[in-house]
Amino acid sequence: MIDLPSYREQSPDVAAHLAEIRQRPVVMTVGSVGRVFDSPQGPITALSGIVFDVHQREFISVIGPSGCGKSTLIRIVAGLESCTDGAVLVDGQPVVGPGPDRGMVFQSYTLFPWLTVRRNVMFGPSMKGMPRAESEQKADEWLRVVGLSKFADHYPNQLSGGMKQRVAIARALANQPRILLMDEPFGALDAQTRCSMQSHLLQICASVDVTVMFITHDLDEAIYLSDRIVVLGAHPGRVLEIIEVPVPRPRSSEQFLSGPFLATKARLEELIHGRSDTGDGVLAAQ
Ligand code: ADP
Ligand code: MG
Description:
Blueprint: E1 2-3, H1 12-23, E2 26-37, E3 44-55, E4 59-63, H2 70-78, E5 85-90, E6 93-94, E7 102-105, H3 117-127, H4 132-145, H5 161-174, E8 179-183, H6 191-207, E9 211-216, H7 219-225, E10 228-233, E11 238-244, H8 259-273, E12 282-283
Helix pairs in contact: 3-4, 3-5, 4-5, 7-8
Bound molecules: adenosine-5'-diphosphate (ADP) and magnesium ion (MG).
Adenosine-5'-diphosphate (ADP) binds near residues 37, 44, 46 and 68.
């Protein structure tokens, strides 16, 4: 057996960081959100009583098994789906449909194939009436942030999967959303590209004033990226626990084997897979 600290144990640095986040303004409130779908077999409660706040520049992940309502939740936040109970507020205003205050990055590539990378990123600002020279300059700034300046004149089909997702992130950020919504954005990428995209996203979040809600079913990814993790259970989709990640920042891949990281992973496994061999504080050696 390897002795692990409790996932609830926070170093003074981590505790101070999380306390500082709690003092920032609330950007988004998920207020008792529920969603029931009608089906030929009868009503399906996809989500029930989901409650949490997200603070400015916080990185929050939502994790849970397939079918627990993660996509339904983020689609409700995006305004692409309605809730049958409760409400989502962004800056205190109820969400009633999609809006530029919420930028969405999906798992599948959603770039316009007939536009260059730069024009894909310019799309939102241009639609809002920004003059061409200015939106071009903005696009180039965001392409610099995601490390794709050299590819501005390429077309999406000339890019790798990871690069396409970086363009999708730049395109979402170019609208200067209050909150960036990401639904398993790296799920279709190979392991190595996925890892480098995670590091990229950490760098972006360190330099840009953006709040992120990130959906994943990958435990390592959730821990590596997040300040807090909302763990959902299935049938009905509900909050099992909201975990404050005790891993210090800045994050690096070496931390994957650190005590706080492994303790958090053990807790997530226990919640999601119902493992009884991972007690609070102790992980059975493999
Ligand atoms: P996840 O993203 O966590 O895998 P989803 O949000 O896609 O889960 O789905 C949650 C539940 O809601 C599932 O049981 C799914 O079958 C059901 N569901 C999702 N969308 C619909 C829909 N449009 N009509 C009926 N049932 C749906
Ligand atoms: Mg999903």
